[in-house]
Specification:
Layout: E1 5-10, H1 12-15, H2 23-38, E2 42-47, H3 50-63, H4 68-90, E3 112-115, H5 124-135, E4 139-144, E5 149-150, E6 162-163, E7 165-166, H6 168-173, H7 189-197, E8 201-206, H8 210-217, E9 225-227
Helix pairs in contact: 2-8, 3-4, 5-7
Length: 234
C-alpha cells in the first residue's frame, strides 16, 4: 500500500474558484484518478477551503469582531463542503466517510479516500503531511492554481522567477514564519517543517495540468516544483 499510495493536497480554489464550482477541473481530475486506480494506485485526497472559506471568513469578520479560532472553524467547515463534493463525484468508488481526524489511522477497503480540514491552527497541507506520516507515504502532491514555487509572490512581482527544485531549508526561507487562515502560500510553513522532519518529498503542480499530474503518478518527468531535503542549493 505504501508504495502505491499517493497523498494529494488539492487547493480549494481549484475545486470552487471565485466564479463557482469548477466542473471542468472536477471531471478531468476524476478521470485521471480513476484511471490510476485501475493501475493499482490508492489515493487520499485532502480538500482545501479556498475561495469558499475566504468568503465566509470575510463575512464573519465584517459582521462581528471575532476570535481567530472562530475564523479557523469557518474555514474547516468549508473544507468539508468541498470534500463532500469531491467524494460525491467518485460515488461508490470512494470511502463513504470523510476523514475528519488524520491523527487516527483506520483501515480502508476503498482506493479513494477523501479528507478535509482538522482543527484550528492546522491547514489542509498539514493534514496531508499528517496522513502521509500515519499511512507511511513518502510523497505528497500539492495541486495549486499557480503550479510552481516562485522566489517571490508572482501576483505582486512581475520579475518573480520559477523554482523547479528546492530543498526544505531554502523553501522555508520564502515563507512567513506562521500560518493563518486564508494564507496564500505554495505550502504552509508549519506543514513544511513537519514534512522536512519526516523527510517527505512534496511536488507542486498546477491543478489544471492533467498530463503533468499523470506523469507524476507514473514516475515520469513533470512540469512543476519538487521540494526535498537532498536537493542542493543552486
Amino acid at each position: 500500500m505504501k508504495k502505491n499510495l499517493f497523498i494529494i493536497s488539492a487547493g480549494g480554489s481549484l475545486i470552487v474558484p471565485e466564479k463557482g464550482v469548477n466542473i471542468r477541473f472536477l471531471k478531468s481530475f476524476k478521470k485521471v484518478i480513476e484511471e490510476e486506480v485501475k493501475k493499482g494506485k490508492r489515493f487520499i485526497i485532502v480538500c482545501g477551503g479556498g475561495s469558499v472559506a475566504r468568503k465566509y471568513q470575510k463575512a464573519l469578520k465584517r459582521i462581528k469582531g471575532t476570535k481567530k479560532e472562530e475564523i479557523d472553524w469557518i474555514g474547516i467547515e468549508s473544507t468539508f463542503l468541498n470534500a463532500s463534493l469531491v467524494k460525491s463525484i467518485f460515488g461508490k468508488k470512494a470511502h463513504p466517510q470523510i476523514i475528519k481526524d488524520p491523527s487516527k489511522k483506520k483501515r480502508f477497503k476503498k482506493n479513494i479516500i477523501i479528507s478535509g480540514g482538522w482543527k484550528p491552527g492546522w491547514s489542509t497541507d498539514y493534514v496531508a503531511v499528517t496522513l502521509a506520516e500515519k499511512y507511511g507515504a513518502k510523497k505528497v502532491l500539492n495541486l495549486t492554481g499557480i503550479g510552481f514555487v516562485y522566489d517571490k509572490n508572482p501576483e505582486k512581482f512581475k520579475e518573480a522567477e520559477i523554482i523547479k527544485e528546492i530543498n526544505w531549508k531554502d523553501f522555508e526561507k520564502l515563507l512567513p514564519s506562521k500560518w493563518k487562515p486564508g494564507l496564500n502560500s505554495p505550502f504552509d510553513p508549519i506543514a513544511s517543517k513537519k514534512a522536512e522532519k519526516l523527510d517527505l518529498e512534496v511536488a507542486v503542480i498546477g491543478g489544471r495540468k492533467m498530463k503533468q499530474i499523470k506523469n507524476y503518478f507514473e514516475g515520469k518527468k513533470f512540469t512543476g516544483t519538487t521540494i526535498r531535503s537532498d536537493i542542493e542549493k543552486k
